[in-house]
Amino acid sequence: MRKSAWGAILTVATSAMVFGGFSAFAASPHANTPVTVSVSATNGIQVGTGFAGFSYEKDQVGADVFNASDTNLVNLFKLLGPNIIRIGGNEVDRVNWNANGAGGSATQIAPSDVTKLAGFLRATGWKVIYGIDLKINTAANAASEAQFAAQALGSSLVAFEIGNEPDFYDTQAQYEASFNSYVSAIKAKVPAATFDGPGQGKGQSWVNTFGAHEKNNSLSILTSHIYVDSAANANIAEMLASNNPGGALQTAEATMNTGRANNGLPQWRMSETNSFFNGGTTGVSDVEAASLWSLDYLSGVAAHNGAGLNFHGGSTSKYTPIVFSGITPTSVQGVYFGQLLWVLGGTGAYHSATVAGGSSVTAWGIGKNVFVNNKSTSAITATITLASSATTASEYVLTAPSLTSKAVTVAGSGVTVAGAFHPAPQSVTVSGTRVVITVPADSAALVVAK
Fold first, then answer.
1. Which of 151, 290, 302, 435 could be cross-linked to 350 through a Cys-Cys bond (beta carbons 3.0 to 4.6 Å apart)?
2. What pTM was computed for the model?
């Protein structure tokens, strides 16, 4: 999780003025705004099951957050799974490996902690990007941890991550020297190990050259971290505008895609991200606005050929998708609902879409399914041209009483702390490639076409 003001990425809100999270312009009392959505038949990147994942601090492993006996947390993960969790954050460089440790301490990682994490991953069906301390560690100790982790995690292990946001304490040359020594030591113990990086926190300036230098050194995922801005500056308008063309997130996504393509790397990923660093802000990062923001963010990563992203969370943050009291989950909020609607859209090729007739409306497709994200203050009637013909269709609406409400539902259902979710999607008429749906103001819809 970002702690320094250096991580701020400032954007200028280009949408309507917002006061206290509400638009300065009242919702129209008239008929729904007509909108047309045309989904491209051209296939983009394949969206997989690991696209909309989580990121957590490393100390949460020893603190016993990820325990297969916590059936509530297991169920909340399974509702979004299978997927990918990234273990790292600032705490990865403060919490070191003790091969002889007793376990159960947030201040170190011991074998029994990793064994519990492995059990949790098996119970949920998730995989892990596993962070290893760089700042107060040695290559030999890192190799010891990696060897145990690889054995315990088995097929659940996606890649190792060396350190967290090293541009806060190293030059690129210093980091690459350390990265190379750690990779060498780890691969001596785990020959099949792969790695992500560089995971910068202050931008993407290292990405292209890091990819060039490390692409033949078991680098499998090019990564970056990004937040919209500091929590001290949090507001809904800036959050939503960050996904616009030319906004902070799309600019970063384009840079990541260029770095991947230039170096022939298999994938890139935002391995730590959320709305506003330093934990987010109540009324912005934890409400309906964050649900809609996260959907556009996921779409932007897919449009730029990304393999996914990991929304940071945990007990002390306002933006956390799953809310905790200590290590006990208590509810879900904001971003979780955006992830949920995304996951309900399934896997398949990403399809761009054009929108005409409405402001603050975005749309895209995954496989035969279509998302329409209505961030305007008026309900819309969207006439959709699908990428291919269908015979039946149903609509899942993600909605809440207002942008600042936490009372979010998907197809009429909330999500309980036990992971219970009972959506009731509505059937909609489809004629060949034509579907017409209604999307309330400040809401999103998923059309599942068959």
1. 302
2. 0.93
